[in-house]
Amino acid sequence: MRIAVGCIGHETNTFSPVTTTIDNFKKGSYHRGDEIIDAFRGTRTITGGFLDVAEQLSLQPVPLLWAFATPSGTVEHAAYEVLKAEFLTLLQNAGKLDGVLLDLHGAMVTDELEDAEGDLIKAVREMVGETWIVTTLDLHANITAKMARYSDVIIGFDTYPHVDCYERGFEAGQLLFGMNNGKIQPTMVYRQLPLLTAPPAQCTMKPPMTDVLKALHALETERGVVTATLSMGFPFADITDAGVSILVTANGDMALAEDYADQFASHIWEMREQFTFNLHTVESAIEIASQTDGRPIILADGADNPGGGGPCDGTTILQKFMEADVQDAVIAVIADPESVAQAVEAGVGNRVQLNVGGKTDTQHGAPIALTGHVKTLCDGRFILKGPMGRGTLGQMGTTAVIQVGGIEIILTERRIQPYDAEVLRSVGIEPQARKLIALKSAVHFRADDTPIAHRILDVDTPGVHSPNLFSYDYQKLRSPIYPLDSTVTYKVG
Fold first, then answer.
1. Domain range spanning residue 332?
2. pTM surpassing 0.85?
3. Least enclosed by CB within 10 Å: which of 89, 193, 329, 346?
4. Is 493 within the bounds of a domain?
5. Cis peptide bond upstream of 100, omega within 30
C-alpha cells in the first residue's frame, strides 16, 4: 500500500501583528521528499509514528512536502498558495496511491482564508477522489465542518502537553491499513460546541482534563467506535469556528457515531464551568518563592508563548525580577538577535550594555536597558530529551546567557518555546539548582518540568497569548459563546 504523507502547518494567532511569510515556513521546518523520512524517522512525532507503523505493516510512505512555521500572526495568502501548489504538484506526481496522511495543525489562518486546512483538505480530495484521507490535527485545532467533510477520518492529539503525537501517527497508519483491507468503513460525526477555553484549563495533566481524557479513552473502547477526538481549540484565532469540537468515528454505523458524539458533547458542555483557573501576579509569585525552600518555582509566562504566536521578547517578568533583586533566577527565553550579536562581540566573561527585548511590539513590555556579564555563548543546537518531540533537533540560533545580578537571561536569535529542560541544560543551567525560572510557555513545559518543579505558577502578564479571554476584542468569532456570554445554551446534535 502506498500512502502519501505531508504537511502544511501553522498555528495562527490573529492578534499578533507579525505577518507569517513564505520565508518563515522555509526557515522553520521545511522538507521535501525523502528529506521528510530522514528528518522524522526515530522521533516521537506524528510522522515518526507513521513511519514506524508503515514499516511494521509494509506500507510504503510516499513523502511529499512537510512545511511548518513557528506560530505567529496571519499567514500571507500568497505564501499559502505557493506551498499549496507545491504540495499538490508533488501529490499529482506521486502516482497511484492507497491513502493520504495529512499531518496538519488545524489553526492556520491566511489573510483570505479563515480555514486554510479545510481548503487544503478539499483540494487534496478533489485530486485523489475516493482514495482514503486521514488527517491528524493538534489538540488546538479549530476544527471546521469543511475539514470533517473532506477527510475520511480526523485524529486529534489527546494530550496537552502533546506527548501522544507518536501514538496518533501510529494510529493513523493502522487505520489506513484497516481501511484499505476492508476491515474499517469509517463513518465520522462532527459536533461543535459554543465553548472557548484557554490553555491552562486545557492541560491534561490535571483536573478537569484528566477526567475528560479518561472519558474520551473509555468512549474509544466502546464496541463499534474506531476513534474519537476532543479538540479544545485555539482561542487566539479570531475566526468563526474557534473553540471546542468533537469527532466520533464508528465502523460503518453513522447512528452509533451520532449517539456517542452527542453524549460526549453534552458531557463536555455540562462541565463548562470547570474550565476556569487562577492567575498570579508576578509580584505574588516572587513572594511565594521567597516563603519556601523548595526549588525550582516555575512561572508560566503564557502570554508571550512563542508556541502560540507570542513574540518571545516580552520583558514584564524580567522587569519585575530586577526590581525585586531576585536571586538564583532564570528568564527563558528572550528572542533578541540584536542583543545576542552584541554579546558575541563583547565575548564570554566581559561586561556588556544591552537594550533587551520589547522590540516586536508594545504589548509585551518595553525594552530594558541593562549591564551584565556574558556568561555563555553557544550555537543554540540541542537534541530534545523530554516527552515532547524526543529525538528532534532544537535550534535557538546563536544563544547568549547574560548574568545581571542574580538573574540569568537566555537570549536567542530565534523564537523558541522552552518546553524541554534541555533549553536550559544546553547552556549550562541546571533547572533544579535555580530558585525561580520564568518560561515563555503556557503548558507544554509541564511534560518535562513537572517532575523537577517544586511548584508551577501561571502568571498574569500582558500579551497576545494571554489566558484571559476577556482581554481580546473578538470581531469574527461566532456569538454567543461561553464564557464570553455566560447565558449561552447548547442544543445537542
1. 282-466
2. yes
3. 89
4. no
5. no
